[in-house]
């Protein structure tokens, strides 16, 4: 499996390539980042690193054997022992269990490195793969939610009951 690494400045070139190569693939199931994200990528990266340094978010990349970014997996809006989990896997790496592995690993990091006790997540109803990953990794449905006008589900995982 690839290595999960906290986001760093030197990830920028590989991360931008990952985002550009997978833009259409991601937009099929989650809202597109928009042209501004790519035009101001360095600025957006600096903002994310500042949020990470402040402890408001924990951003990670999945780095493959050739130092390529195969995915992102993040904990955002960290507060009161909880955070929102988000992840995206490159199209060429999808379907091999990478997302399930990465979510399990990040749950472990969330509990043991970051001291979190609960994670929230969500996905659209039409994203069967993401729903399956969340279910396989111990998340349970706790409600309905909208994602840019698309129906979805909210999930929760208590890390004190199932730390991995």
Automatic annotation (TrEMBL):
InterPro entries: Acyl_CoA_acyltransferase (IPR016181), GNAT_dom (IPR000182), N-acetyltransferase (IPR051531). This is GNAT family N-acetyltransferase. SUPFAM superfamilies: Acyl-CoA N-acyltransferases (Nat). Transmembrane segments: none annotated. GO terms for cellular component: cytoplasm. Keywords: Acyltransferase, Transferase. It comes from Streptomyces phaeolivaceus. Belongs to the acetyltransferase family. RimJ subfamily. Gene3D superfamilies: 3.40.630.30. Residues 2-160 form the N-acetyltransferase domain. GO terms for molecular function: protein-N-terminal-alanine acetyltransferase activity. Pfam families: Acetyltransf_3. The keyword Glycosyltransferase does not apply.
């Amino acid at each position: 499996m690839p290595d999960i690494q906290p986001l760093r400045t030197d990830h920028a070139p590989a991360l931008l390539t990952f985002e550009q190569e997978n833009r259409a693939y991601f937009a099929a199931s989650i809202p597109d980042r928009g042209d501004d994200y790519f035009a101001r990528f360095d600025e957006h990266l600096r903002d994310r690193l500042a949020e990470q340094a402040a402890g408001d978010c924990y951003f990670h990349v999945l780095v493959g054997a050739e130092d390529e970014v195969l995915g992102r997996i993040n904990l955002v809006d960290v507060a009161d022992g909880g955070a929102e989990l988000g992840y995206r896997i490159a199209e060429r790496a999808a379907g091999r269990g990478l997302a399930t592995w990465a979510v399990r690993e990040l749950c472990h990091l969330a509990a043991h490195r970051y001291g979190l006790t609960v994670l929230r997540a969500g996905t659209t109803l039409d994203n069967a793969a993401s729903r399956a990953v969340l279910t396989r990794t111990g998340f349970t449905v706790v409600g309905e939610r909208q994602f840019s006008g698309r129906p979805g589900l909210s999930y929760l995982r208590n890390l004190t009951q199932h730390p991995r």
